[in-house]
User: Fold these one by one.
Assistant:
Number 1:
Amino acid sequence: MTTRKPVNPDLARLDRVVADARRAREEREQGYRAQALKLYPWICGRCAREFDQGNVQELTVHHKDHNHDYNPPDGSNWELLCVYCHDNEHQRYLEQPGTPTGSADRAPSATHTPFADLAALLKRDD
Ligand SMILES: [Zn+2]
Ligand SMILES: [Zn+2]
């Protein structure tokens, strides 16, 4: 019997798959960013701050429907925002969870406590 664990080839392959996916996403982001910067004037859509080659890295491409996979070539889902306004935009989005469709009151549920058992288990060691 050996105590040494062999390198898991599946894990190595998974690492490569993840790296490939990340690279593909970065390439795609570069793609739509370049397109958006070509399509629109370099001005923040919220605070109207103007940008040039020197600070254009602070100008971000926002997806109006918050779906980064929806990139119509006419740019209808893009909006150029400075990093500050972009942050704001996403915070506002997060502060409005869901749509008010008249669903039941969402009272904080205290019936499900997934860590209760764990706490009990940990206590046993005392
Ligand atoms: Zn701005
Ligand atoms: Zn955004």
Note: Residues 44, 46-47, 49, 81-82, 84-85 surround zinc ion (ligand 1) (CB under 6 Å).
Number 2:
Amino acid sequence: MQRVRLRIEGRVQGVGFRPTVYRLARRFPLTGFVKNTGFGVLIEAQGEQNALNQFIACLQSEKPRQAVIESLQSEEINPLAENDFSITESVRSGDLCAGMPPDMAICALCRQELFDPGDRRRQYPFINCTDCGPRFSIIRALPYDRKRTTMASFQMCPACQEEFTDPLNRRFEAQPNACPVCGPRVELLDADFNAMAGDPIAGAIELLKAGKILAVKGIGGYHLCCDALNADAVRLLRERKKRPDKPLAVMFKSLPQIREYCRLTDEEAAELKSVAAPVVILQRKGKKSLADTERRLGQALAVNISPDTNDVGAFLPYAPLHCLILEEIAPLVMTSGNKRDEPIAINEDDLKNILGDIADAALTHNRPIVRRCDDSVLRIVRAGKIMLRRSRGFVPAAIRLPVSGPPVLACGAELKSTVCVTRGDRAFLSAHIGDLDDLRNYNFFQESVRDFLELLEVSPAVVAHDMHPDYVSTRYALGVDGVRREQIQHHHAHIASCLAEHQLAGKAIGIALDGTGYGTDGTIWGGEIMIADLCSFQRVGHFKQYPMPGGKEAVLEPARMALSILAVEFGADAEKMIEKHLPSIPGRERAVLLDMVGRKAHSPLTSSAGRLFDAVAALLGLGERVSYEGRAAVCLQALADKRVNRNYPYEIQEENGILVLSLAKTVRAIVGDLEQKKAGSHIAAMFHNTIAAALAEACVLIRQRYDLANKNFKDAAGPEAHALPIDSDKGRATASPPCRLNLNRVALSGGVFQNDFLLDKLTDCLKREGFEVYTNQIVPPNDGGISLGQAAVAAARNG
Ligand SMILES: [Zn+2]
Ligand SMILES: [Zn+2]
């Protein structure tokens, strides 16, 4: 007879971990107890050695689907006289590190009961268990129990109560447990907020079949839905939402239904079926096999779901309510329930903004949502994952940092905003907030900051923010009293987010490519190569700078960037060339813009890679005026012929000790190809390959220069004695003496790396040169990941 004490850390509270332990203990059988603690779960188990070993093995193999065991420590203690196994009340539990799981998609067993005519919860849209259901979106405060969730006002009926208190039941302590007798109900509202007669779900399905637009209350907010096979309904939704081109997510009934329309790998299928149930970006099937599908099914997916690309953002029903609707009509367009660029609607007040204006009716319910949580979006690529938006299903899971420091509040950037709070070596990222130039999003930003600080019971010692003086997130940070402030350069934060995710504490080469970020010299950066660790960075290379005529205007009008580059590179010949290749710019405007570029008036200089993509897209006639930033680049990637392997010429020059990557020759070659009427698909691919080749060559030059002992140098972190002199505040290269650094690591981040064609090409080039390549896997490479990078830098500098 032996007794062991097991300390388990990780996500082990609120996910049905204790009942699993209880059931396993009964199976072997063992005596002892399990309880929640501040750090996770504590188990004492007593029995035969063999049974104990099997028990511990089963904790790993049979743990609940949302549980994460980060560490398991075991110690032998003296056996006691006892004869049963129990779940003990915890003294203090509910630490956010262990206690608050993300929202979970409906599990297979609940789904089965939902459609079982004999089950007492058949057709009940709020069915859930310890393995599934809402969590983050309904928890008002910690520790997580029913009275602190939005289920508090629903008194459990005797049948539900019995399940809730029976450790052998799969609804034991499932806090949102409910049934048709005692739980929340749905209601169908017309455009004037009057309840409609009849069965609400059946009524909603009828409206969708009739081509109407419906607001449907889900887990983290409302969706706006319509029939995805009805192009007129999709067009109406786009018009009313004022969202002309941006892709819309599509919810399919099942994996087989997705396979009818899209190509699907095993990795993508696993992601779609995962407990987080994100939107996964898939490729539509080729024209021929799609035509077969359409002939067989007699229906086609509306083309205007994603007019710019061949991609479809697909996901599966994750709330029981979705399952009930999709069973009758699928696939459906399901996009965030908001007006363009505003926060997603979660309550009656928000509903006033969309019902009537955008939606013809609303399928709503009386289980309140506490926290807005948009759907998460990702793409599976060769390098693993690209998170495009990290929200429902992932938030608020902790991210482990390679450093531990005082509590940090990181305020993020401006677009695709998120905030991040740290405690010790754990970072907690908020849900996707949106673009902060909208006041309603700014309110949501403040809400998120308060919420995370409260949940974590943290008062920040350090507030981290961007260097851009005009970002509202910067102004917010500057208004927080009694804290130390860290201003962190935008692209350093991008690279730091990648280093932090991969637990890299030493120096690496970082390539940050994005649209816009405030540089330490007051110009706009966005195509940067740096040597960086978490504390500091040195800018060692960048793309050649060009004027951005009209500043922000140039972002929405990519032809302006093309004009600027032609004007700089072709001098006197530029005007003729612009007239010929940029016909979207009228004659008078052309003269004005050329004058602006010439006089450098209202034309800030930028090294942005995003703007280079814009310019080339404009030369190819893509995106004259775009409805969302980066649209031209999206179109350029979609156009590129993936089979083309060659690239255009480019130059790498040195200015003041910094490498400058010039695409002057590239642009000449592109204009030459245009004159010869070469295919756009060829030019687009050659351009991608050129960017990859130029960046990889620059990395080789940087390694040669700063890493003399590269060949045999193995010490990863590198003792500080060898550190490179870095002037992080200025970001300027100081003298570049020979020093021993392991610069075989390259971290890639920034919004441009949402482009997986470029990512693959660059990764190939770098690997051929012997580099190890790191990309963001947990947070987005776009500005949604900035707050994590800021938090990591601030923690490292103050740790
Ligand atoms: Zn379930
Ligand atoms: Zn009940």
Note: The longest strand covers residues 508-518.
